[in-house]
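pinging the channel bc i need a second pair of eyes. not urgent but kinda urgent?? the chain im working w is below, pasted from the shared doc
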Amino acid sequence: MSNIFKLKLTALGHPNPEGFNCEDEKEYRSVVLWLEDQKIRHYKIEEREGLRNIDSDQWKKAYDTYQNDLVSPVVKGLPNEQLNWLLCYAVRLEYADNVTKYENVKVDEPKKAAPNVVSSNPLDNLDFGSAAFKAGVERVCALAGVGPHLDPKFRLAAVAKILKTSPHPDLPRNEVLERCHWLIQHW
């Protein structure tokens, strides 16, 4: 969970997201105060006094009131759930305040080196959207007595079910079933 907190705190510009320990009560309280002071700003400055007294025995009561005032759905949840909601709320507010800044941001996706796999299975090279494939499905369905449907995958599933429950005695049952299941899974 702390990785999630670190990411959100970094996104919000927290001064020490790497060093944040959500299990340390004082740090937890400090982050809640930082979120209210810097990002959420639900209370007027003078109304934040209860949250500022992070060493006080009354802090928990002030925090519960704060969550109720924010209409938090996790008021009765665990502290980590409550903090996660506050962080998400702060991120939403940050985005709403700076929509134009964030709307054109593109995420750089790491390039994944795709392995070069050469398959000897002819089914791997099928084009499931081609007219030839659809015509083949049509012929198989006509032989099996499967009625029309817009989705060829649905029709192949019906053929597989028919073969499973009442296969023709002369057909190599397992091979046909395997091919139908493979086609359905890789559609």
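so Residues 2-103 form one domain. and The mean pLDDT is 84. — does that match what u expected or am i reading it wrong
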